[in-house]
Predict the 3D structure of the following.
Amino acid sequence: MRMNHESLLDVALKLDRAGHFALDVSIQTPLAGVTVLMGASGSGKTTLLRSIAGLEKAACGHIQVGDVCWQSSTYSLPVHKRSLAYVFQEPSLFPHLTVKQNLEFALIRSVAKSSLDEQVHLIGLLGIEGLLERRPEQLSGGERQRVAIARAIFRKPALLMMDEPLAALDTQRKQEVLPYIEALARETDIPILYVTHSIEEAARISDRVVYLQDGRVQTQGHINEVLERVNITAPEFGRLGSAVSGSVSEQLEQWKLCRVTTTFGDVLIPNCNRLVGEPTKLFIQANQVSLSLSQPVDSTLLNNYVGHITKITSASESALATIQVNLKGVLILAQITQMSLHALQLETGLQVWVSIKSAALMS
Amino acid sequence: MHLTEEDLQAIWLTLKLASTVTLLLLVIATPLAWWLGRTSSKFKAPIAALFSLPLILPPTVLGFYLLLAMGPNGWVGQLTQSLGIGLLPFTFWGLVVASIVYSLPFAVYPIQNAVEQLGDRPMEVAATLGAGPLDRFFNVALPLLKPGIFSAAVLTFAHTVGEFGIVLMIGGNIPNETRVIAVQMYDHVEALEYVEAHGLAALMLAFSFIVLLLLYGLRHKRNVPHGAMQ
């Protein structure tokens, strides 16, 4: 068990690919929970992850994982001796081995390997019990990725690296695999470094986010703080939104709703099968949030709160503007049209009513 | 089909030669193909060109140079003499050496192709799962390269069975030592023994067809490119 809260992942790396791209990154992050490396394509997040793993031979600098040095100016631990596991973007099961043999490949070569109980639990958690005797070509993309994740965790690594493990899957498969990754992040105590450019993925699983731009760390912190500091609305980041922590406080059986209590108030959401008292996270898409200058009355909207505008981001070429509202310390993003922005004469500091049309329950 | 005692001897010798050459070539060609398939060295092109020369050189030209090199004044000859092996030309082992040079590209190409198709990824995956370099080579690369290595073995074997020019240059025509099927066949025709020639010719024809059938059958079966990560 590595629950030492003192341990840090301490990375300072440089990599210069003459002309095209330079990575110059320094990160110190707790070696616990899920750290998401986020950024646009070409920002260097995958290269950084590969460099930390030792797969980019040209990267120089130092890497300290807890009390083990992986790389210094005079020394580089070979990849196979680093206590890491890596889930690649595209499926990476060995085609000449069955699922079981793929898992054993990792077990045989690991120092810390997981116990039989843990293996059985993990296989159940990832829902791959029925696949063990199959060959990789007989699996769906989502199944392959789940097996690859199990194989990685069988190593009980000091650091689990995941490079956009959902990127090669279609939306439906993503929704199939993501809950497994959330469950893993909750149930194992293996620190995870997770690369993605999806805001929703980051919001769902991250404990903290490191945002990269042009090979450098632009900002880091809680996902909402990061979204506050950088303006990311490019389509590649997916749906814009905010993450909110809370807990289920009541089931309204009659209306098929449940009440989630958060720091800024209660949010009613439909169809949640959680127990009362369970901590949870909500992802509130920015386009599901609307603003008004007075309290909505006679409205069908159930979730209304009052707050202040803290930031307005708009680009002249877009019909939409992003408004950030502070609700009792929680930053919520709303996406509205430039036309509404103009009509209501919204500006920073103004008090507004925020209506949340829908929110998705995460882990 | 009528086969004489000499025919059977020639067949046996040919099979022995082809098996020996195939086995030795796989050991030589696999590391070479591995290097060629993965390197970005500036020496890659000249070395690939050098090893591919037997593809286009007339066997007599190649045989001539090999004969000079392995002869009493050639550097290979001097080496073999100083090692106490004697001279290689007109011996079985001389034929083996010449055949290895002659068939090298046929062994290297299929394996190099497979190495290039394999890419870096499987080796990276294996490394992140704790496999060291030799472990990666033997337990990941070799199994994934198996179809390429199999093609190389079949091609090398068949190519060695079918060679003629280089055998004449290096081996001559010594029964049980260097007289392989192709030479025996030539002797039959020279002596106007068409019946015997027919026997051997039909045998070679059937053999060649079966080899190609095997290769294409194998290729057809692999609708998923082997070695691709799943």
Observations:
- The domain at 8-233 of chain A is CATH 3.40.50.300 (Rossmann fold).
- The first helix of chain A runs from residue 45 to 53.
